[in-house]
Amino acid sequence: MSDTIEVDGKQFAVDEEGYLSNLNDWVPGVAGVMAAQDNLELTEEHWDIINFLREYYEEYQIAPAVRVLTKAVGKKLGKEKGNSKYLYSLFPYGPAKQACRFAGLPKPTGCV
Amino acid sequence: MSEIVKKFMYLNRKAPYGTIYAWEALEVVLIGAAFDQDVSVMFLDDGVYQLTKGQDTKGIGMKNFSPTFRTLGDYEVKKVYVDRASLEARGLTQEDLVAIAWEDMETEEEVDNIVEVIDSARVSALMNESDVVFSF
After folding, report:
1. How is chain A split into domains, by residue range?
2. Residue A100 is a catalytic residue
3. pTM score, whole prediction
4. CB contact under 8 A, B71 and A60
5. How open is the CA angle A98-A76-A83, to the nearest 5 degrees?
6. Tens-place pLDDT, residues B30-72
7. Which chain B residues have a beta carbon less than 8 Å from that of A79?
């Protein structure tokens, strides 16, 4: 993993695990470039989760652990989406870890 | 997951800023929540300031993590206690503290606020009942 990623001709610093160094840098294009690195194409369903995570961070100042994400998604977006099977189908590298990275958030608190 | 469930108590005695204890304690609680133990969080002495509403950290250049306490319910922490004597000694009441909601997704059981202000005898009793006490 390089220490910067290029989005729309601009360089963005990332840490050794690929998370954005400065969360205020985030633009939607960041998610697209990171997804391409993971060979994923972002759909509207992915964006629902990414936007949800950014709102969660805005409100609570942390990136939620996966089981907290699952519970909160169920509450907000409906029970059929609040389960790990659905979330893993969207984000195969772990819904919290991978989606938080796309969303420009730090690695989730309580990720073990 | 381990079948043995222990009673963990996290004691918070320090003001939220000025030292790293309060933030570190909160992170330990959130990380520990993944292990399905019986967790309670207790605030006493200057620790009661951690739960106060309307914190503004702009002047000291620190992250305001007080909104994060409201996620404790999402992390399945259902027991948050505040020592009444510590609150009163600082001229505070429950009105000055944030509310933390908890909801069970399966049963749809809801509690609007799990923050409970308790007297010193109850504080001692709860500490005695705990298998493990982490003091921050």
Report:
1. 4-102
2. no
3. 0.84
4. yes
5. 55
6. 888 878 889 999 999 999 999 999 999 999 988 899 999 999 9
7. 105
